[in-house]
């Protein structure tokens, strides 16, 4: 523990190292921080100083929804953080506050409505069926990460974004570099720059192809088309549009790791798999529970800066101080989720915060749910008696990843 400053009423600062955790085990450091109290102070491996950490469900939702905490100011502070590199591009929607945040999200809202996402279902199902058909045709064993979990979300999010098929492998490689610190800061920053340059070129190409006087977007259009139309109409700058597109593209591929964790659970707990096979009507509730339970990321996500003094859980967060909320901790709050460390496939109610809360609630949550549903159904319905092709202890999880997930899921079947 580090002692910080003369105010003895403040909790000590706890070092939170970057742990390369395997499986779906809950972070042991976060467990200790939750035991220490609803609000503590942490120092992460990179950045400067310390930050507050809020763990209790009600407090997490309050901070995430309170305009007295700013995302935009984080761009001006070297806040302690997990990643050695700083991911957002200038103008990124995740680092704006209302009303600019609201303005930026509005530009792509049409692509993320319930009807907009459902329009993708049939094509997404055909894409996944083709991938599964190829796996079954080749026969066991197969790495489900390489054959399904990586290519399927990439295809779906690129369809939604408007990324041509020939560009997708390179876009995927850039995303992997951005979301990992294993290759070093320079390569991660280089990948971000190349991705931003590419997205800027796509926006200009779409704008150039639009008829004179016409917007490039429209109801149900792809994201790059919608953003190009918004730039053309003067609603956003090109820099802002690139920032929005970058975060949406990166977020769209998080499904690979998250569903990898879900499949790991089902393959290591066959009684859960059999229950879902026997009761398909239980699957929507079960998927929601798996979303609550899985470790969506390592450590914590994005911080906020207090604009004024705010009391949270009996502690005063002073103006200018950084604060993190832990959605992982909130999802294990026993006051909200009885027996939080157990997987209850029929858990209701289940108002988890895996997609965030408040203004920065993940805009792609319905798309992620759709992809997760289709992938889990494929494992349950298309593969007879699936099981790991290697001992579980030989499985590896991605080193240095901001979003935890298995490097490979080698599976065999009967």
Task: Please summarize what this structure is.
This protein is an alpha+beta fold. The protein is built from 16 helices and 11 strands.
Features:
three-stranded antiparallel β-sheet; 414 residues; alpha+beta; six-stranded mixed β-sheet
Detailed description of the structure:
The structure is a single chain. Helix 12 (254-268) packs parallel to helix 16. The protein is α+β, with helices and mostly antiparallel strands. The protein has a six-stranded mixed beta sheet with strand order 1-2-3-9-6-4, sandwiched between helices. Strands 5-11-10 form a three-stranded antiparallel beta sheet. It has a two-stranded antiparallel sheet with strand order 7-8. The longest helix is centred in the middle third of the chain and has 25 residues, at 185-209. The chain is 44% helix and 8% strand.
What secondary-structure arrangement, pairings included, does this model have?
Elements: E1 13-15, H1 28-36, E2 39-43, E3 51-54, H2 57-64, E4 69-70, H3 100-108, H4 114-118, H5 121-138, E5 142-143, H6 144-149, H7 151-161, H8 168-178, H9 185-209, H10 223-232, H11 238-252, H12 254-268, H13 270-278, H14 283-293, E6 304-306, E7 310-312, E8 315-317, E9 322-325, H15 327-330, H16 365-382, E10 387-388, E11 410-412
Parallel strand pairs: 1-2, 3-9
Antiparallel strand pairs: 2-3, 4-6, 5-11, 6-9, 7-8, 10-11
Helix pairs in contact: 5-7, 5-16, 7-11, 8-9, 9-10, 9-11, 10-11, 12-13, 12-16
Whole-number radius of gyration?
Answer: 21 Å
Number of strands: 11
Shape, per Cα inertia axes:
globular
Q: Major sheet: size, sense and barrel closure?
A: 6 strands, mixed
The total count of helices amounts to 16
Beta content comes to 5-15%
Helix content: 40-55%
